[in-house]
């Protein structure tokens, strides 16, 4: 075996490391979720006659399944995932069609968002979020120069998002539809889309979203009750008014773990959509700041890892990190905003904390993807560091006899970090790395 082969073998043997900050933030949020689901769901479970720990057992079971999915994602090479990008897009549309199949789809309160898996129901949009982020990341890698330079390349992912949003609105699921549009816009900007060109679809689409929001009577009631929940405290403003009372009772240090009053069948969905209000009541302002701080750490670290990946020209990994960060950041912001009365009521769970099998499992899978991104980034950095000579051969001083010439150093193996050849953007402009939305 020659020197080059031995050096290549040594490089392949170099491993990475999963980011400890991501692990700690995710584990802390998951552990807090177990504690708060146990606290918030006891009264609800007993009222349904299902036993006090019914929802806790289910939540722990779904976390265990999510942990398995996370481990599988952590051990899967991203290049293998990228290979099936077109099949992933098809999978998004197939999943959103499943709730409409007789015998498989489940309708709850007039909404067809779930499929029946026998032991539990599964909300398909949670899987669509992860799969769509991976597909959009692969699209931005394949057409990253054209996205910045041409209209068709920019409009194609927007068109795909509009089709998915249309299918979500038919369920109906306005919250997830809006979230999907936000993820698409954010990833396009971080992928280098021309900002003035991007602003036109946004300006044209916002009035349409407003019309969709107000055309349905129940959505309009949510908006009006959000503006003044006390006007109809026992009607449209019932959820928000009780959530605000829970937040107010918590004050600085809370009433104590397990001592919430609002969770005792006053606050609807206390263990799912409004679990943050229970946290505020039992742990107070300090606990609220701690939860927000954990989400800031998780999202901020994901964005940092995505930035480092783009700098090393690992665009697919970087865009996945951006997409997952946008998803978790936007969803947690909306959920917290709803509980604090800053946003109209939407059915979005608090990631890793709220009870809900679909959300918990798919969020764990997304965390596994993030950890895989961090592992491959660390591995690439170590490989590049191995190739760089740590020291320069010493030069003999004039008054010293020159030593025997050193043995020739094997030529370094190049292109450890693959550089995708730049495609012509059509305007004769070069691309600067890392790339974000620009005005040129």
UniProtKB/TrEMBL annotation:
Keywords: Cell cycle, Cell division, Cell inner membrane, Cell membrane, Cell shape, Cell wall biogenesis/degradation, Glycosyltransferase, Membrane, Peptidoglycan synthesis, Transferase, Transmembrane, Transmembrane helix
Topology within the bilayer: Multi-pass membrane protein
Superkingdom, taxonomy of origin: Bacteria
Record has Ribosomal protein as a keyword: no
Reaction(s) catalysed by this chain's protein: [GlcNAc-(1->4)-Mur2Ac(oyl-L-Ala-gamma-D-Glu-L-Lys-D-Ala-D-Ala)](n)-di-trans,octa-cis-undecaprenyl diphosphate + beta-D-GlcNAc-(1->4)-Mur2Ac(oyl-L-Ala-gamma-D-Glu-L-Lys-D-Ala-D-Ala)-di-trans,octa-cis-undecaprenyl diphosphate = [GlcNAc-(1->4)-Mur2Ac(oyl-L-Ala-gamma-D-Glu-L-Lys-D-Ala-D-Ala)](n+1)-di-trans,octa-cis-undecaprenyl diphosphate + di-trans,octa-cis-undecaprenyl diphosphate + H(+)
Chain spans, region Disordered: 395-440
Role played: Peptidoglycan polymerase that is essential for cell division.
Protein known as: Probable peptidoglycan glycosyltransferase FtsW
């Amino acid at each position: 075996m020659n020197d080059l082969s031995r050096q290549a073998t040594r490089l392949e043997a170099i491993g990475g490391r999963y980011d400890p900050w991501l692990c700690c933030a995710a584990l802390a949020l998951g552990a807090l979720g177990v504690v708060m689901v146990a606290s918030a769901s006891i009264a609800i479970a007993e009222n349904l006659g299902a036993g006090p720990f019914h929802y806790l057992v289910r939540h722990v079971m779904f976390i265990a399944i999510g942990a398995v999915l996370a481990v599988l994602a952590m051990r899967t090479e991203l290049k293998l995932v990228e290979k099936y990008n077109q099949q992933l897009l098809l999978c998004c549309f197939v999943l959103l069609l499943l709730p409409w199949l007789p015998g498989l789809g489940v309708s709850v309160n007039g909404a067809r968002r779930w499929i029946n898996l026998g032991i539990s129901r599964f909300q398909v949009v949670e899987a669509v979020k992860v799969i769509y982020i991976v597909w959009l990341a692969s699209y931005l890698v394949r057409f990253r120069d054209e996205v910045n330079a041409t209209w068709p390349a920019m409009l194609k992912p927007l068109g795909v998002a509009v089709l998915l949003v249309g299918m979500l609105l038919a369920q109906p699921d306005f919250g997830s539809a809006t979230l999907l549009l936000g993820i698409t816009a954010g990833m396009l900007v971080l992928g280098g889309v021309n900002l003035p060109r991007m602003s036109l679809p946004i300006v044209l689409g916002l009035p349409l979203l407003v019309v969709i929001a107000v055309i349905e009577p129940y959505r309009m009631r949510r908006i009006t009750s959000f503006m003044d929940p006390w006007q109809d405290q026992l009607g449209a403003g019932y959820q928000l008014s009780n959530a605000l009372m829970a937040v107010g009772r918590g004050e600085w240090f809370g009433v104590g773990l397990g001592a919430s009053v609002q969770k005792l069948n006053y606050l609807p969905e206390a263990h799912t959509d409004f679990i943050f209000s229970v946290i505020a009541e039992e742990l107070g302002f300090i606990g609220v700041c701690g939860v927000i701080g954990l989400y800031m750490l998780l999202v901020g670290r994901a964005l940092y890892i995505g930035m480092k990946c783009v700098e090393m020209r690992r665009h697919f990994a970087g865009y996945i990190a951006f997409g997952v960060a946008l998803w978790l950041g936007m969803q947690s912001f909306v959920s917290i905003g709803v509980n604090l009365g800053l946003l109209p009521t939407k059915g979005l769970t608090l990631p890793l904390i709220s009870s809900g099998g679909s959300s918990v499992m798919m969020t764990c899978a997304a965390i596994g993807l993030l950890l895989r991104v961090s592992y491959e980034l660390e591995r690439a950095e170590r490989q590049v560091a191995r190739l760089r000579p740590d020291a320069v051969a010493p030069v003999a001083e004039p008054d010293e006899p020159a030593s025997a010439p050193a043995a020739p150093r094997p030529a370094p193996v190049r292109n450890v970090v693959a550089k995708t050849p730049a495609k012509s953007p059509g305007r004769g402009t070069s691309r600067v790395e890392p790339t974000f939305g620009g005005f040129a």
